[in-house]
Design a protein that fits this description.
Layout lengths: L2 E4 L6 E4 L6 E5 L4 H4 L3 E5 L3 E5 L4 E4 L7 E5 L7 E5 L5 E6 L12 E5 L5
Parallel strand pairs: 3-10
Antiparallel strand pairs: 1-2, 2-5, 4-9, 6-7, 7-8, 8-9
Bound molecules: zinc ion.
The site of zinc ion has 9 residues, from loops.
Length: about 120
């Protein structure tokens, strides 16, 4: 099973080899709260950028360990790149950029990124 996502203008498209999750992380850090990101995490191998590599820019802050990728045409952030607590290359998917995700049905898990 797999699901697909995109930025708003459609320049950036991606595929995730995983089932759609039933829950999402809502983080209160200075970055996530402003963008309203609803995140799910997958191993990098499960993520494929289909189009838009040349349209993406990268924002880093604080420890600069996470590459927040956003579309320079429409401003959406479909995903981020980083390394998980287990040391594995990880992708954070913004479920708001996944049309098949039923956002109202997601169980939201709060993450206190503001206190890190
Ligand atoms: Zn776009």
């Amino acid at each position: 099973m797999a699901y697909t996502g995109s930025c708003q203008c459609g320049a950036v498209t991606f595929t995730v080899e995983a089932e759609l999750p039933g829950e999402a992380i809502s983080c209160n850090c200075s970055h996530c709260r402003r963008k309203g990101l609803l995140l799910t995490f997958v191993p990098a191998e499960a993520f494929r950028l289909d189009t838009g590599d040349d349209t993406l820019a990268t924002h880093r802050f604080n420890t600069r360990r996470i590459a927040h990728r956003f579309c320079t045409a429409c401003g959406c952030q479909p995903f981020a790149e980083g390394v998980g607590p287990d040391g594995r290359d990880t992708r954070a998917i913004n479920l708001r950029c996944v049309p098949a995700a039923d956002l109202d049905a997601l169980t939201l898990r709060s993450f206190d990124g503001a206190s890190l």
